[in-house]
Amino acid sequence: MTLSRVAMVGAVLLGVVAGTPLAAAQSVPVPSPLPLSPVVSPPKPPVEPMPMPTVDPLVPLSADLPALGSPAPVVESVTPTTSAEATPVAAPACVPWTITTVAEGFGVLENLAFDGDGTMLLSESIPFGDGAIRTLTPSGAEGTLVSEVQSPGGIVVDGDRVVFTTGNNVMAGLWGSANGTVDAVDRDGGNRTTLTEGLSMPNGLGLLDNGDLLVTHAFGDAPGLTRIPASDPAAAATVRTDIGSANGLFIASDKVYVGNTVDRSTEVHVLDAGDLTGEVTTLTLPGGGAANAGDDLAVDADGLVYIALNGAGKVVRIDPSTGDSCEIATDLPMTSSVRFGAGAGWDPTALYTTSFDGTVHRLTPPGN
Fold first, then answer.
1. For residue 340, what is the DSSP state?
2. C-alpha–C-alpha distance, residues 295 and 310, integer Å
3. Is 276 buried (19+), middle (13-18) or exposed (0-12) by CB count in 10 A?
4. Residue 175 resides in a domain
5. Cys-Cys crosslink for 270: which of 130, 281, 289, 317, Cβ 3.0 to 4.6 Å?
6. Closest CA to 19 of 263, 213, 255
7. Mean pLDDT in residue range 180-206
8. The pTM is what?
């Protein structure tokens, strides 16, 4: 839904940072019938047989009750069936992951990516000054890929270049400023170029198989999803504006996942990468949208979705097949992005997160 500027300002004043800087029942035993015993005293007439005890109709009777006077049945022991035999394989248990600090002391961190060669890329904003695309190695060495970047947002690695958004500033989005761009730089930091300009607060960034780029906009006159053709990057076009305050973006195989940030409820919209204007599947998370402040997200090889809740300080896993969700990490204030490790030195089973407080964390799954 499109937010009015007044409503959006109100959200910010309420402290919403919008993902941008600023046993089954057991059977009841059936009572055994009482034995019949005649009275043999001659002076008295025989006593009539006692009636059978009345069984409460609510108590279920076995279909194979033994006949009167027959020996008691022998109950054989039964080996319980294991859960693996009785039920199909379930989703991972909702067990918290281990949180470890990887690095800290950066400026406001909005997003991260891996170049595949052992370097983590971080989009860093500075409250008073230019931001940068920063680098981090598994050993903790910090560096700068490119400096003088105004409010960088999403990052993707496309072959020999790194592509990132600029102008991801909440005030620019609130006032509809179109000063945002999509830039590219060589992986060695040289040859920086602007691919697309005139965007309003471009936030999330994704790369389709055909080379086209997708950009999300949480605020502005038309929050939603924009497509940037690889053949003509200057011809950016709005794809859809019916998915709310679009923020997090992840492309996995034939699906595009878009998370919202300040709508009434926190949602992840699943689109067909081959038909972005077609039918949408929506996954809804517990909690209020503004309080959660959903941010960036990632998807694993099994199709499970992991989303950073910036306002709630959590990372939540969602099973799209059931809609069930699980908090895998809490007490992570202002977490803005999640990505699985890639490249030498980075654990591919672990999630790495960024935060507005300048900290990078690693979330390690149980058993690892």
1. E
2. 6
3. middle
4. yes
5. 281
6. 263
7. 96
8. 0.77
